[in-house]
Protein: G-protein coupled receptors family 1 profile domain-containing protein
Organism: Trichoplax adhaerens
Amino acid sequence: MVNVTFQIQMSEEFAVGSMIILVFIFAVGLCGNAIICCYKIKDGRKMKVQDILVFNLAFSDASYVTSSFIGLFQIFFRVYLNQLPIYKSNTLLCRLNICIPFYFGVVNVFSMALLAIVRYLAINKPRTFLSLSRKSYSLVIFCLINWLVPALLAFPQAFRLWGGVTYISDVGFCYTIYHYSQGLNIIIFFTTVIVGVIVVPLTIIFLCYWKIYQEVRRNRSRIAYHDNRPNVILPATHDKNRSLRVRARSNSIKSFSRKREIYVATTLFIILLTFTLSYIPYSIIAIIAFFRISPYQIRVHLILLFVTYLGNIANPIIFIIRNNDIRKWLKRLFPSCSLFQLYSTTSIADIATQDRRV
């Protein structure tokens, strides 16, 4: 890596605003994901593969916001106090300060992709999923992919084995922003990060949930086919009552079918929208800065880094809103709290189970 430094020209106002945002992200993200983690581990050994991966996602969310708060808050606080530079040079401690949050960020993206794969297998390939869930090594492989592969991207930067971080000289901190002038090593590393951390996981998530949506639509078509078959002429004794019951059941199936499709479509939209809004703007400004960097672009890059925390805040909220069981659990813990009102929802797994019974 060529030893190139840049400046950010950070004002006190920018530092104060960033500290406020970080405190909010830390408080909401940590509390929300701590709720999910506690809810999942309360079952202990009864946790299934999907439960473990949901816990994994919540834990990585909490780790990402916590490590980012610890690493970045001190930078903005020192800027506000005008105690600069924070680090006098590109030291190991300076690099670890940003590489650790970077590591948990990559783990978080991988967690979402692995959870999408498992949901796809559970609904579209139930036999394959059942076979994998019975083999303990499959979960070990999932966890190794989730936690070790990101380490190959994050920590070699800290120890200057591969890639690297950029030293922002006027403030005195290390940051994961890159420019082609830093050499071939950085060009290869940056390309690997964009493809491996953004493009591939986003493609996997989209394809998995799209396949799930298609499976639900196919099941709806089967229901509609059975519902539209010619009515059978029933014996005169009970034909009227049975006819009414059949018609009522038919209307109920139609209503459930519509609600089911809307539910899956909404869930798909929320997941993809959250991930896209979280990481795509950050990736775009990172690519722009790679070719043309300036203090303004570094500040924008830092602001959009905060946007990536949107998913860490949204994931537990989505899970709580769309899961009756966790709201029942929270209602028992906090009986006087009106935030955890119960209403009827149907999970994707429940949808798949009911579809197979038709």
About this structure: Residues 342-358 have pLDDT under 50 and may be disordered. DSSP finds eleven helices and three strands in the chain.
